[in-house]
Amino acid sequence: MIPTPSEIERAIDSGGVPLREMFASADCDSLLDLRDSSSDFDAAWQAAHKTTEKIRFILNEPIPTTTLRELAFKAVFDATEHHDLAACVSDDFGLIGCAGYVSSHDSIDGFRDATIEWLWQEYSDGRLPIPPMPGSTEP
Known about the structure:
Number of strands: 0
Helix content: 55-70%
Largest sheet: none
Number of helices: 7
Distance between the termini: 28 Å
Radius of gyration: 14 Å
Strand content: under 5%
Oligomer: single chain
């Protein structure tokens, strides 16, 4: 299960999701190139985003991910000074936080998305989610 945005914020603040450490010595451009090179990854990410946007529209209420996105962006930017990587991670955490909020919402029963769960697991394990994804047809 994906945590709520506030639970994810606490995990980042406490080091449970070690964004600063994860990217301190990373080759940022290579990591972004790996993500950008996979059409499977992009298609899965976009599909997950569209699903959460549809649910956001149905709920007709703001989903509190702004603070989470800012926290993720600042942690990565402080470690790397790489704006594009920080924005990429911020987008991921916006998606993860949205899914966590939706899955905890009383009127949405049993929301799950395999791509978002995989993103969250990768970050929880201290890794930037890069292809191949589970079930991908790409090498």
